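Much of the work behind modern protein science is quiet bookkeeping, done one molecule at a time. Below is the pair of lines this work produces for a single protein:

***
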Amino acid sequence: MKADPACPDLPSAALGGPVSHAVSRVARLHRIAAGKLLKGLGLYPGQEFLMMYLWDAGAVRQSELIRVMDLDPSTVTKMLQRLEQTGHVRRSPDPDDRRAVLVEATDDSCALHAAVERAWTNLEEHTLAGLDTAEREELARLLGKVEANLCQETADCPERC
């Protein structure tokens, strides 16, 4: 198999998987670009997904966040500590189970919601610059198929957040 023309320096070990190598490169660059946009909002990459979930779901148990985010509990705890320190989330005992903790977005996070929405819109435009509407739709369709394949392969399809 010959090297990917989009990446002439494809490592020899990746020659059997040029698309997988490209997906990995794109995912890495997308995360870096998102990180730059989020840094201006005082967020670390990944925190915006947690906030998006809370804005839509309302108050949820911390254990649900851990499950939905599909992250190590200590990682979610650290994210929540940082978001709580900045006033974006509030944690409180669950009145139905005193051992459980409820997490919710604060009213003060409304400005952050609008800023995250703008950042994701900017990221989308930057990411898809040069693609027309049909190409954008086709890319979304194809990525959806790739995601379904990976979910089936891993038997681990986390809820979308």
Observations:
- The chain has a mean pLDDT of 89.
- Residues 80 and 89 are 7 Å apart (CA to CA).
- The chain has six helices and three strands.
